Amino acid sequence: MVVAILFGSQTSCKKDFLEIVPKGNQVAVTTTDYDLLLNSQSHYYYTAAGGLREFVLMGDEVAAEADLFGKQDVYTPRAFQWLGKIYERNDEPLDLANQTGEMYVINKVINEVMSSTDGTDAQKQAILGEAKARRAFINFLWVNIYGKPYLASSAASDPAFPLITAASISAKKFTRASVQEMYDAIIKDLTDAIAVLPVQSAALTRVSRAAAEALLGKVYLFMGRYSDALPLLKTALTDVAASQIPVRLYDYNVEFAPGGAFLPISSYNGPSGPGNNYNDFTESVLAKTFMGGGYDGNPFENDGLVLSPDAEALYGPSDLRLNLYSNIDPNGNPIPDGRIRKYGVTYIKFGMQLSELYLLSAEVKARTNDLAGAVADVETLRMNRMPAADAPVPGAIAGDQGALVKFIIDERIREFALEGYRWFDMRRLSVDPLFPGMTFTHTLYSGSGNTTYTLQLPERLVLQIPQYYIDTNPGMVNNP
């Protein structure tokens, strides 16, 4: 039987918590049916909801121009100012609506696929493993949005988000799991997945063993368990190389040279690179994409966002990633004081990019005192982003563990600025002993006077759970 699925749009009207079964009917009987459930575009392309755009606004590498910023909705300036209240009482964040709908399907697969017909046990196990990896990915987002940054000393008592394991809308009461409980569940799901997933996935939008290994390595890094992360990230890189679906780093030295794939550069949209092509998964170990462009009718538009001067100063003059930026605003006017906006990334890849895998590996090696290995990993990325002569890590940094970790963190900004990655790094660095006393600010530039906003720690490092979820679950306490 062919699976029959009609996905309806998610809405923001008030309903029971997690009453998110997609409109229409879902009938899955055979193993192929359950496999097809994981093929849905909803698992890898967040179209209507704007994806994780609020976190683009919340990274401290961004600034904003008052003339263009926050004109379309009330949510954008609230996120930029790190306010406690971003959403109205009956609002549901659109990315959360996407994810809860996705979680319903994932749990359906997990709970039913082993009883499906016509498939082999190995096929069923692989589908089960992929679904568990996808559940872990969502839970990892949720624990890093609604729970405090991981600290072993308090994780068991810090509240996070409900752990959802049923494909059901009948439950009427949910409770918040602790940060530790969520991380334990994530680790178990990914460990189970790695044991059964093939090295070769059917497509880069499906979860391979390398993707699950890379994600678990990232999870351990976020927990400060660097020795546990190291072998997973090493194996992930090995498995990426063994896959017959080619995943590689673009060499910007080639692609921005005459005849290169990133040319021509449009004065409005920027280069013709993967950021402007949602089907370009060349660098994706696991392809997941959301809209990162200007205002498109959804909350959290990015018109007026620019790179902060401190972040811009991290780039060397020959860094070809600067070709993804423009000093002209969307209306064709020069941005004051030469500030620059990112115009070469309409579609943000947030699953697992090969560039991040190299940086995760580099950071873990540096933190476990394999400085030479860390330098080799970060230079692998840099050799593909700038002329070879400028790619080496400076000698004084390469031999200093603390300086090298900071350099790699800065490389994450250079690689992923204005793409939402920085917010999640800010959270973990705020409790990292190597980065004591960190402060985070935003500047809104205006001809009548600039305004600076400061992130209040630790309460503003977590988002509030939508109030109607709280209202329908008596006793559930919200974040401040």
Task: Give a summary of the structure in a few sentences.
With 480 residues, the protein is of the alpha+beta class. 38% of the residues lie in helices and 8% in strands.
The poorly predicted ranges are 1-25
- Envelope shape: globular
Number of domains: 1
CATH fold group: Serine Threonine Protein Phosphatase 5, Tetratricopeptide repeat
CATH class: Mainly Alpha
Strand percentage: 5-15%
- How far the N terminus sits from the C terminus, by CA atoms, comes to 49 Å
**Structural class by secondary-structure content:** alpha+beta
Helix content: 25-40%
Mean pLDDT: 90
Count up the helices: 16
Give the name of the CATH architecture.
Answer: Alpha Horseshoe
Strand order of the largest sheet: 7-4-12-13
Beta-strand segment tally: 13
User: What is the succession of H and E elements?
Assistant: EEHEHEHHHHHHHEEEHEEEEHHHHHEEH
Radius of gyration of CA atoms, rounded to a whole number: 22 Å
The main sheet comes to:
4 strands, mixed
Explain how this protein is built.
The chain has 480 residues and is an alpha+beta fold. The protein has a single domain, classed as Serine Threonine Protein Phosphatase 5, Tetratricopeptide repeat (Alpha Horseshoe). The protein is 38% helix and 8% strand. It is built from 16 helices and 13 strands. Strands 7-4-12-13 form a four-stranded mixed beta sheet. The protein has a three-stranded mixed beta sheet with strand order 3-6-10, with no helix packed on it. It has a two-stranded antiparallel sheet with strand order 1-2. Helix 8 (226-242) packs antiparallel against helix 11 (354-367). It is globular and about 65 Å long. The relative contact order is 0.15. Residues 1-25 have low confidence and may be disordered.
